[in-house]
User: Fold these one by one.
Assistant:
Number 1:
Amino acid sequence: RAPPRASSSRRPTTRRVRAPPPRRDASASATESTAAESTTAAEEAPVARSLEFMVEMACGKCVAKVEHALAHVPGIDAVAATLSTNSVRVVTATASTDAIVAAIERAGFNCRLIGQGDVGAFGEELARRLGTNLRTLRQSLAAVAEFKGSAYGHGSIAGVVRFVAADERNTLIEGGLRGLTPFATYAMTVRAYGDTTRGLETVGEVYDAADDGDDDDSERPSSENDAQPAAGDLGTLVADANGEVTIVSRVVDARLKAWDIIGRSLAVVEQGGGGGGEDGTSTGAAAVLARSAGVGENLKRVCDCDGTVIWESSPDDFTPVVAKKKLVTTVVEKKSA
């Protein structure tokens, strides 16, 4: 007997099969990988800064010679020499200030660094958020710490360390020191205070700015229990066989702003030392972080105070009279011995 026929009203059942995921194309994977690598490279790329130099140029040929000399300095992105103001503006991410000055002087021209930081990159909105005016902000985009040896209580340490705001987020450090202990390791930190009357004893703890999300700009002393280093912790330096070190231009902690550190101090302390004596000679030294002019803000060639021409000045012109007497006394004593 034949089985009964299925009702025509009954719909046949179906099984939905999920299609397998498409295979990743090798070229697409390579593209994504390249994009990721490009993003990482962009984040790690050095940040450019603007520098301005006073250069003693007399004619158009001088301008051409200066520009030609700087064309051979690695790391320079742009050069603009102006004869009427005797100024040369340089944009670079990696070239040191000393290398630029040396190249210009080798070409036969007197040269002085007179400004750093592109003031045009900072506007009214940032000034308002910082609770200041635009003029004051643009005068606070660069800071410099100058170590001048024993005449200033810096022991044997001499040199210059510069800070400059490249933009609202990035602050750069660059410079060089000499007179260090050969092969020794030094900790470099921004300190809370600019009181260097007793060297390292009076400059306070390592400076630490408030987080960006905080409502105020108060600072707190660094602590071993902090989750991250203090903003003023700039890492370590290792002196070479001659007791010298070059600080290659790099971005510092995002919490450290040029306008916040002016008036504080920069300390360089040999690791393993006990904090240093009153004159800063035992393990390190501290120098005040002073305001430095921005690009386009310091084009004068003659000092209004005493009429000194910029080319005629020397580091000794800024040594206190008392310190000069100490130096003379030391020299006389050595000759007598």
Note: The mean pLDDT is 74.
Number 2:
Amino acid sequence: MVPTILMLLSFVTFASSAITLPTSKKSLESKYQVMHKVAMTEEGMVTRGQDGRIDKRMINGMKKYWLMAETSNPQFVMARSVLCTSSSVVCLFATLYFLFNYFLVDLFKFGVVHLRSHSVYGNNTTWILIVQIIGMVVGTLVSLCRWFTAVRFKCLTTCRGISLREELKIEGHWIQTLVYWRDSFSGLQIQDNKCRRHLHDAKWFALTFLIGVQIMMVIVSKLLLLIPALLITPFILFFKKLKARRLSRLTTSNNDIKTESEGDTELNLSRFVLLLDSEAELPEKTLKNICGQADKVIEMGKEQQPQNLIHLLDKFGNFSGIREFDSFHVPSLHSQEPPNCWSLPLVTLTSIAISLPKIVNNHKATQLMSDVREGLSLVKLIEKTLYKNDELLNTRNATEVSWVGVALYRKWQGIDLRRISLKCKNSKNVLQELSSNAERTIVEFKGTTNDFLTDNPLNWPSNVIAANSMYRICQTILLSCQRGKEQTADGLFERLSVMIADILAACFTNLARVIITKCHSNAIEEREKSVHEAFLLLGKTGQILELLQRQEWPSLDHDKAAYIDEWRASFLQSNDNPLTSSRSSDEAAKSAISNAEQITVMAE
């Protein structure tokens, strides 16, 4: 009988907690939206996200989002709920009853021999019983720790004085869902009005009873915290007075403590703790621990910094590679050109670089692959975060398909890059071979496809988009070779590496915006994970951001800065760019702006 009652109490407790979730979530979400606007205004995170730079004030603003995400996390809300802590007491009684009734009583009545199993399974059942007892005791101890913590927090509030009426007050979120169910009209399609009235009355009485049960459960749960807190509070006050007397004698230590307290309250983070109505404030120590976790995540990210990528970014110059990798002197194979994403030219340039003679089997190729692999992981994250509504989806898919072949098999669309390197005598022949294969793919596609949808490059298959990128970049490099630039394999490899570094650096100027965007996750269930990823990314890319902040960036709107074609259009229209373009400025600007407009229309 007793186990049944305890199990029923546990079920009612968890059911009562589950009923409060919708209203609790709604209340916390509304408070989050209010404090979100406050945080954005106070720290100026909108403008900081636009200029792409990270400073100490911005990190402090991010900590506000960390605190809001942690304190509004559904698991944390349930853990500090009075119903959840009261379930620990039920668990304690269940454990004590089991140990007393099935262990101590049998031991004193029948001796140890009675505890031995007479089952056909032998002593195995005894070991199973022991394992279950251990698990039950450990689970009970963990739940009791949570209850003791809640009692300790309650003691801190009772030290300042309490009102019994306020302590036992039933907040709206406890019964709001049940009241709505009770007062709303039933959706049953019953023609008989008398029958519908009786059903509504029955529902009203049943839910009124459940509301009473819910109120009773909340009051009992609050008493289970309040009574122990009232008993312990006098002892806490006594020890506080003793501690205060000791500290008063240590003037220096006291001044240090005040200094630390002033430093900790400088950010005034307590305003960003999201609590339910009438919920007790979290202790200062808890807030410090939560904020300290943010610093630990940043340090964890610093330990994961991509050293190979940072080595490649040392070659970064002044973003000129964004303009140089594709020349508008190269004739188009189609009436329209597909817009670029950041990752596609990176994969194409890497494929060309590792296929050059004397490079394909060299450690330089292996090192470049490692560098680009680390860079692409961040580039893809930036594209995934900033490109909404499946923007440039086919272009990004083309990158994925091409990179899998290059990274795993050193093949580009089934073409063995090692074989091409051995077959061709010099770098020029390699470029011509890759360009011819890419051109063949595009021509075959145009000859075999008559669908009007393919007139739009955004609808092209992935392999055709990748082939178009390979064709244009190879032809651009061949044109520059004809103009007397370096043609040796080592020289061309270094030039391509600089282009890759420039494109990566330009893409990484969006990192600050990505970090801020991740702090602003809308879904309450995903908010904690998203903010955690933002702080981890901040630590992981700290050295990269420092490197970029030493450079001068083009004056681009933060929305346009997410697109490589907008960068190209900006550089080609600017007269301040230090490098001379390999194409006509008017033609280049016209074509780049066309691609940028195509992206803008697609985004809308």
Note: Residues 193-249 form the longest helix (57 residues).
Number 3:
Amino acid sequence: GATMALALLPPLSESPRFCRVFLSTASLMTGGSTLWVTDEVVPHIGDGLMVCYHPHGVIPLGFTLNGAIRAKTKRPQDYLPHEAQISSRVSGVQAPVLFKIPILRQVLQLFGCSTPATKSGMLGLLKRQMTFGIIIGGSEEVALHVCGRERLFLRNRAGFMKYALQHGTKLVVAYNFGESDLYNNVEALRSFNLWLVRTCGFVLPCFWGRWWCPLLPRAGVPLNTVFGTVLELPRIEDPSAEQVAEWHGRYIAALQGVFDAHKQQFGYGGRSLEIL
């Protein structure tokens, strides 16, 4: 009954107050949750940007706590680095299946980040030159997650690059240091979950953070999201496969550069990226 009622609710309006209350839950991250914006990225803040987050993690806390929701609070001076006062005219794209889940759909609407990660959804944001966040690795990255390893699903994920080239969009490479250490998971389900993504578009991970409350992330793991560099793309109305591949390769190189430049700073000097 209650689930049916929620399913029939009309769309909700974004709520700055709800965003502020939600961000207060960051105190449950005993290591803290911080957004860093490099000097290279600062001059581009305010432009229409596609902010590309890596990795997804089991629950995408870097994307959630260090993303558009900070601007949606309507108090950027309290929630954003002083040099990166992003406008509240921002959004985030989510897996389409999430909008079919009552309660979760309403939460996304209250965040004001309620655009499905579909072709039409992304092209709509790009045409309006809005800044928005996207987790490039998607559900596949949830399936591939191994606690303590930096595993990214990216080699065969180039659709975002084609759309960005068609609009001459600037891409911000964002890395979530600590995301891969927030939750343990059952690795034996990997093949099943990869099949589930291909077949149904979602995953069913078996995971836990703290023993007494599995949904809470592991204690003492800081989460640091770095907006590391900007890749400025040419506008190509109908990019060829070769052009998409070329810029996709440049993107991977830029991502590797951001990871290598900052991993020591956040205690991951011994880590390497696994780009799958």
Note: The first helix runs from residue 2 to 7.
